[in-house]
Amino acid sequence: QKSATLKILDGDQERSFSDGEGNDAANVTAPLSIGGSFDIRMSNFDDHLLVWIDDELLSFDGPTTFDPRQFRKASESGPQTKPGIHPLDASPVGIAVKGGSATIDHVRIDRDKYYIACEGQQMNDYDLSELYALNAGPGDVQQILESPSDWERYPVWKARRKIKFELAEDQFFPMGDNSPESLDARCWAGARPRQRLPRRFADDAYTFADASYVPRDLLVGKALMVFWPHPWNKPLPMTPNFSRFRLIR
Q1: pLDDT tens across 46-57, in order?
Q2: How many CA atoms does the CB half-sphere of 8 hold within 13 Å?
Q3: Less crowded by CB within 10 Å, the N or C end of the chain?
Q4: What gap in Å lies between CA 55 and CA 48, rounded to an integer?
Q5: Using only C-alpha atoms, what is the Rg of the chain?
Q6: With contact defined as beta carbons under 8 Å apart, do 240 and 231 qualify?
Q7: How many helices (H) and strands (E) does the chain have?
Q8: Neighbours of 63 (CB within 10 A)
Q9: Which of 9-23, 35-49, 142-156 has the lowest mean pLDDT?
């Protein structure tokens, strides 16, 4: 078996993980051996690194969380393309093997999954007033992001919207799988007019209808399977995307 160590490399400088208690080691004995074949998965989500080997989550002997504000100023929080400056969000993904050789097959990278920050009916990625202040409109964003030479002149990512929802203990925030369209917890609280029951029937019916959460005691089931993903329109209208049917692990 071999040991595995997670590191944060900022150019030539190694940065520390942090759990708020001064611990910065992130080591583990991993079930890897020379000549073997393994399924390795890594996640960097909400400033927390996780590693799985053959679907088994590794338990490191120190934190694998980090605070990016220790590495970058707020003004640097965006793609960089100037010579000699770390590209940050513009950096490609790299996979390397040191001290030996290996064959890597079936690589899949999932990036930039996010939910549009909204509260109510308006579903826009960007604060339109801030976007217009940059002399850009909603239709210009994609073209600017595809043109690094425009990033310094039009830092459109600074106009991305941010919304904060306060949740108490045992309150859950459901989110649909279609960021710009799902009528999920982001939009429940007074977002869209709907016909209500007569007042005499509605004493308890709308206790949580205008709240941006579901209380624990209303969670009565468990999702087991994806059975109706977005359908295709051919060869017939509303043809299911059978390749995406699967059990939820």
Answers
A1: 888 888 988 888
A2: 19
A3: C
A4: 18
A5: 23
A6: yes
A7: 2, 11
A8: 19
A9: 9-23
